[in-house]
Amino acid sequence: xxxxxxxxxxxxxxxxxxxxxxxxxxxxxxxxxxSSTGTVTPIAQKGLIQVVQTPDQLTHFQWKNxxxxxxxxxxxxxxxxxxxxxxxxxxxRVYLLRFSSSDRRLFFWMQEPKDDQDKEHEKKVNHxxxxxxxxxxxxxxx
Length: 142
Description:
Layout: H1 2-19, E1 24-34, E2 39-42, E3 47-53, E4 59-65, E5 71-77, E6 82-87, E7 94-99, E8 105-110, H2 118-130, H3 138-141
């Protein structure tokens, strides 16, 4: 009996960790935006963007400091609350998280060594934010 309870406990822990596995995750740093000049300046911290759907069905857009391992930004977003898109910037591969319900904007810069997956990361973030829990191939039908 004790072994069965222990086994069930391990299974529940494993299921919980799967539930918090990011739907998408890639290296990206934060940028500072100056509203007076309209310029975006990358901040030199090593970071990670991840979108996680928790067991309570909430979607979290997170920015994690790769040096400390701490999640510094954790935003709970609802479908159609935000879009993630590339913006033209002399600073390089810059992306904007734009909120539909406010003027809030967050800028990030890609830290992946190669740019060949940038469009795929953008597509996956938007899918995870706006169609949580649905397989990616359903986007093509909509």
